[in-house]
Design brief:
Elements (H helix, E strand, L loop, with lengths): L1 H18 L4 E8 L2 E9 L2 E8 L4 E19 L6 E6 L3 E6 L4 E21 L3
Antiparallel strand pairs: 1-2, 2-7, 3-7, 4-5, 4-6, 4-7
Length: 124
């Protein structure tokens, strides 16, 4: 009986470990003017604060090779200046910023493979 219990315990452990997947497998660069990520697996949420002056542009390039991606760009608790959910294709946008401040970029992946780039481009 002990051998059967040990066998089933070992099998359960093997099955549970093989079912685990990584939340993020890729590279990430982020600072106050950019968020750049390339990944083969993205199943989590990541954020980056960008410091933006009035008149600047936040340039976004989103490549979705597989899965879905959502993003939001928001200053404090104000209405987001940009938001999209469930993106399953590649897109490129420029977002005009009317008010200086720190804007938080939030990106969420669901079985996503691809890349994102959010870069502050100066109006000067």
């Amino acid at each position: 009986m002990k051998k059967i219990t040990t066998f089933f315990s070992a099998m359960l452990l093997i099955i549970s470990l093989s079912a685990c997947s990584s939340d993020f497998d890729g590279s990430r660069t982020g600072n106050d003017t950019q968020l750049i990520m390339e990944y083969t697996e993205f199943n989590t949420t990541d954020t980056q604060d960008l410091v933006v002056e009035a008149g600047d542009i936040i340039h976004a390039e989103i490549v979705v090779e597989d899965g879905h991606l959502s993003y939001k760009i928001q200053k404090d608790d104000e209405e987001p200046i940009a938001e999209s959910e469930g993106i399953f294709f590649s897109v490129e946008y420029d977002f005009d910023v009317e008010e200086s401040g720190t804007y938080t970029v939030t990106v969420t992946g669901e079985n996503a493979k691809g890349s994102v780039k959010f870069v502050v481009e100066s109006a000067e």
